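Students often ask what a holo structure prediction actually looks like on paper. The answer is less mysterious than it sounds. You provide the chain, you provide the ligand, and the output is a string of discrete structure tokens encoding the 3D arrangement of the protein together with glutamic acid.
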Amino acid sequence: MSMKTWIMLVLIILLTAGCGRREKEKSGPMTYVTIGTGGVTGVYYPTGGAISKIVNQKSDIYNLNLSAESTGGSVYNINAIMNGDMAFGIVQSDRQAQAYGGEAEWEDAGPQEKLRSVFSIHPETVTILAAVDAGIENINDLVGKTVNIGNPGSGNRGNAIDALENAGMDWRIDLKAEGMKATEASRMLQEGRIDAFFYTVGHPSSSFREATSGRRKVRFIPITAVEDLLDKYSYYARSWIPIEFYPNADNKENVPSYGVKATLCISSDIPEEIVYAVTREIFENFEEFKTLHPAYGILTKENMLEGLTAPIHSGAMKYYIEAGLK
Ligand code: GLU
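The corresponding structure tokens follow.
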């Protein structure tokens, strides 16, 4: 554990030891732990809330209190975990693989060898939403348009760049690329300040509900010629946008695309008991957890162990072995 994390933990323990003494006499001081998520209109933020809600039901037993914090997204979360600024982070499976392997944003810093995965959660689809009046029907129509590809701390920015390159475009030259957070993009699209935006997110998300519910007519853009991307990167899989969630979009059918998985990550420095407690509570209260967001509809205990590209943390592994899942 980094010095900074130690100091933080010690401070928290000292601060809480005093005020919680009477209630916690038997069980000791509370440890407060943060989960880095994404923008408040994405699915990571409510997911951080859902995980916290389940685990905090047993706060008194584990002396553990979780809370979700809104952040810039996957890349930010990985860096915060590695710096010891946050314990948990929700991270796209492709970003987890890149960080662990020292690729993409981590090319200079090198492999993030202490990165560990806990479990995977909902699938995330690389999604493009465009204004109907901008005349965009396929990805190549983005040429010359003002398009939000996402803020640098997000996971989705890299997916947008990959998708554009795969379609033969250079995001720096062929379009006017914006670097805003997805939370702002919905409003910017409705206000006519951008023509389209990319967001890799679970469905349904408040972002797309908001962006499809305004006066400006919008449509999702299919991304179909992805064979090369799927061949090159094992973390990408075909996916689609379930249109039932967005009745006001111009599309009438599900929209084909491709995507990744949201995963819960942590550093190997975080104590086993904490990771064990979180894993155990989510899996033991699995049916309740699944009701907390419609994007969890397809989750099974088994598929929550798929898409993990960094090694599983020993605290999580302890539970999986106990539960016969590994
Ligand atoms: N996939 C996005 C990212 O990594 C976040 C999506 C969300 O917040 O639900 O930045």
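The chain has two domains: 29-123+261-322, 124-259.
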